[in-house]
Amino acid sequence: MKFSKPQTLRDIAKLIDCDFLGSADFPVLGLNEIHVVNPGDIVFVDHPKYYDKALQSQATIVLINKEVACPEGKALLISDDPFRDFNKIINHFNPFIAARAVISDSAEIGLHTVIQPNVFIGNNVKIGKDCLIHPNVVIYDNTIIGDRVTIHAGTVLGADAFYYKNRPENFDKLVSCGNVVIQNNVDIGALCTIDKGVTASTTISEGTKLDNQVHIGHDTLVGRRCLIAAQVAIAGCVIIEDFVTIWGQAAITSGVTIGEKAIISAQSGVSKSLEGHKSYFGSPADEFRKKYKEIASIRLIPDIIEKLDKL
Fold this sequence. Notes:
The chain is α/β, with parallel strands linked by helices. The protein folds into 2 domains: 2-93, Udp-n-acetylmuramoylalanyl-d-glutamate--2,6- Diaminopimelate Ligase, Chain: A, domain 1, CATH 3.40.1390.10; 108-288, 3 Solenoid (UDP N-Acetylglucosamine Acyltransferase, domain 1). 15% of the residues lie in helices and 30% in strands. Strand 33 (279-281) and strand 34 (286-287) form a beta hairpin. The longest helix is centred in the last third of the chain and has 23 residues, at 288-310.
């Protein structure tokens, strides 16, 4: 998330009432999660295991819960609770604005786009030309939809990320301030859910087709001309490269990459990154040939046990 105008380190420290290391006039341009940070961004870290990753990232301002050596060219915000203060910054610069109409006055809808009854379109949504949005679709604030996109009934674009901190008394939610981007010529089936990015975009690239009841988590990138069948569940921060096919009820864990032209069979469970140009099935998913050999070996076990019993 980029701020509407640049801030200073002093400004942000005052906002969250914390100490800082670095020049008071050090520029602060926005904030982002670790996997999408750029120079000028704030990133937060609250566990020693991830200190080095945050300090060595592209972010130039680190919101951290311990005073440590500050890398050259960077600044620190010292907070007793970085998670809480990250949320505080988001809410200050990106406050929730309640809807005042079923289709917001700030929404932009392109030529020849058809909006069926009972569609909700939030603030600052942009929809291109020649789209067809079927009944009961919900499009949250700041969603961007390209040209010639079809969205079937009951789909939700832009719900919050499933991102929580486990505290002793409850689960504390990280505020989502990203959006969803749907590029040209995408088809989305009925009852799909595509969550917004935490601080950036969840993106469905040009020509991709989603069947019914597909879930795509926050900050995931789905490449061009992918086919995703019904009831597939894709976690957050996944990269799916171009021309990938995923068959029904497959599930993909967070933070992995699926290579170009990979094929994932139905009900597979993907727990690691997979190379492109190969076919996979099973849970955990692996290459077809390797998995078939495993299954063949397992089928031999009863005969082996029977022979051993006769010895």
